[in-house]
Amino acid sequence: MTAPLTQAAHVIGVDLGGTKTAAGVVSPSGDVLISETIPTLNRAGGEAILDATAALITGLAERAADAGISVSGVGVGSAGVIDPSSGVVVSATDAIHGWAGTALVSGLCSRLALPAAAVRAVNDVHAHALGEAWLGAAAGSSSSLMVAFGTGVGGSFVVDGAPVLGHRFVGGHVGHFASPYACADGAPLPCVCGASGHVEAIASGPALYQAYLRFGGSSLDAADTRGVFALAASASDTHDDGAAAASADSRAAALRAIEVGAAAAGQAVGGLINILDPETVVVSGGLADAGDPWWKPMESALRLELLAPLAAVPVIRATLGNTAAIVGAAKLVLEIRETS
């Protein structure tokens, strides 16, 4: 990095996911001023990913310097289980080959010529939740539970501005406890973690699509989860050519898959609320962004699950969108500046 270190400088937040890595120059107030996204080299190994990420950060720092903005550090929200004290990727799925064991923080520090204190890292879902807790849907809350439903199911419980990571840094894996909805023909559905019967096996986007197929839907009528939602929307429009072309079985399967997936999601979040008693609940991810066909049955199931004293807990859609994890990752470094 060519920009000098200064106490009041901006920082770069990085959202390192399994398919893409997004980064942005973030002001002390949380504004993303300059941003860029690159594909994650998820089959090239940890060192290649660190090289590409460092190049992305360096390019942003140079663009910031050209605009008269100094960059003082880097915060990273990364896929995998991250030990924030050592900056090492403790474990990771096959979504990123060779990522487990990567020295994320020290690797970036050496490539960027930054001191260890200038780079911090945490799991990407925790970074997402930090962003929403700082400037998004949970801003001003003393505690917030965020659960994201998309390609997977993840979450984070943020208390007084810090995520609860757990003793082994695995806190937040809220997709991996049992759901009574996660079964078919009397057998628990397999989960990507290797176990079965988990929330993620029924409430994630890919799981919703598999449910559509199990319920009699045709891949010719809907090729993916997005197609299932389009098919469900067209089913109520008798003038829609897509609805006319699709079979009645596929339309019914789409509606049922969304209803079941949303109910499983809502029940799971409701159970977590009963356990954690957060001030605010934020629901995020691609399914939450799909609108009322998913949101309404999700929230209905959630409310049915709640203990009486929790009946009025606010349940809010995430508001920061794709910048949430960038902002949250940046906050990791900005909070050092605030307390120093």
From TrEMBL:
Top-level taxonomic group: Bacteria
Annotated signal peptide: none
Organism from which the protein derives: Paenarthrobacter nicotinovorans
Stated family: Belongs to the ROK (NagC/XylR) family.
Regions that span the bilayer: none
Listed name of the protein: ROK family protein
InterPro entries (alphabetical): ATPase_NBD, ROK
